[in-house]
Each structure stands twice: as structure tokens, then as C-alpha cells.
Amino acid sequence: MRLLLAGSLCALILAITSHAAAAAPQTSSGTPTQNWDRKLAGSARFTVFSEFNNEAVRDNNTGLVWEKSTAITREVQNVAAGICINKTIGGQKGWRLPAIPELASLYDPVGSAPALTPGHPFVNVQTFLYWSASTFAEDQAAAWHVGFDNGEVQTGPKAQAYYIWCVRGPMHESVY
User: Fold this and answer.
1) Among 22-26, 97-101, 118-122, which is the least confidently predicted range?
2) Residues 72, 11: one domain?
3) In angstroms, rounded to a whole number, what is the distance separating the alpha carbons of residues 130 and 164?
4) Which H or E run includes 82?
5) Is there a domain that residue 176 lies in?
6) Which residues are CB-neighbours of 136 under 8 A, at least 6 positions away?
7) What pTM value is reported for the model?
8) What is the mean pLDDT of the chain?
9) Is the CB of residue 114 less than 8 Å from the CB of residue 126?
10) By C-alpha distance, which of 127, 132, 133, 134 is closest to 150?
11) Total count of domains within the chain
């Protein structure tokens, strides 16, 4: 019985690993395109997904999938979170506000306003503040946000209205 259970467990792990490897975007040489350890140029860093009706973009540095066109309205943080949770992009649900390290990872100091990697595919990005899902640990009524004019990461009252940029993928810790 133990041998059968162990064999079934090994088969399940192999199936999951194979599925994850097959699902990961790869270069023409067959290597994964996620690159936490180096900076990719705009055209290499981002991939627009035709499978999402060209409405979503994979960041090949982080592996996260971002909405291509950000909202052009501002909302308070809890409303912004609800908008992402209920959003359908490219026929897919499962969107959320990004954690602060995820959102800050899009900022590029050599980019022009908005300060994103040159050659990025995003639309409607404003040179103002965008909400993260990260609550400020010292004040639960405040959350972190990023300005795409200067890359400044700061906190502000959750009752303040800022822009929204939704993302999909595993989430980092949300309280800093």
C-alpha cells in the first residue's frame, strides 16, 4: 500500500512539475524567460499575450502578468482592490492589486514620463500615484503607492484616490 501511495505521489509531483514547465514562457532555445537576476530591454522584458486578446502583458523579469491598459480614473484603496478582484481581462478573472515590490518593479529611472522601461507595451499609464495592496505596517489606515513620474515609493491614506494597475500571479507579502 505504501509503495502504491508513494508511486501515486511521485506521479502527481511529476505531472505538476511537467505542467508548470510546459506553461512557463520560454525562449527559442527552450529556456525560461523569467530573469530576476538581470535587466531586460523593453522588447525582451515584456510579452503581450494574444491569448488574452492582447489585453495582458507578461513581465519576463518577474513572471507577473499585468493589464496592458491601466484605468484612467482614481479610486480609494478598498474600491481599487475591488475593481481588480472583479475585473475580467482577456476573458480571465483572478486579478488583484499588486504588492509594493511588484508595482515598484515596473519603474525604470531611464524611462521618460511615465517612467517605464523604454519600449514597454503599456497604455494609459499616468505620471501619478498607483495603489498597491501593501498596507503600511505602522498605520493600518495607510497603504504604499508608487509614482511613475519619479519612482518614489511612499505611503498615503487609504481614503485618498490614486490610480489602479491590476496584476495576476502569486503575491508577495502585503504589509510593510
Assistant:
1) 22-26
2) no
3) 6
4) helix 77-86
5) no
6) 142, 143, 144, 155, 175, 176
7) 0.76
8) 81
9) yes
10) 127
11) 2
Same domain, 92 and 10: no
Asked if 169 contacts 133 with a C-beta cutoff of 8 angstroms, the reply is no
> CA–CA distance from 142 to each of 7, 83, 130, 153 (Å)?
50, 19, 13, 13
Taking only the tens place, the pLDDT of each residue in 60-116 is 988 999 999 998 999 999 999 999 999 999 999 999 999 999 999 999 988 788 999
Measured CA to CA, the distance from residue 144 to residue 100 in angstroms comes to 6
On whether both 42 and 122 belong to a single domain, the answer is yes
Which residues lie below 8 Å from residue 83, measured CB to CB, with a gap of 6+? Answer: 71, 75, 164, 166
- For residue 155, is pLDDT > 70? yes
Extract the C-alpha cell encoding 23.
506553461
Query: β-strands 153-157, 139-147: how paired?
Result: antiparallel
- In a shared domain, residues 158 and 72: yes
For residue 58, how many other CB atoms are within 10 A of its CB? 21
- Domain range for residue 114? 34-168
pLDDT digits (tens, 9 = 90+) for 156-172: 999 999 999 999 998 76
Do the domain assignments include residue 173?
A: no
Stretch 49-62: mean pLDDT: 94
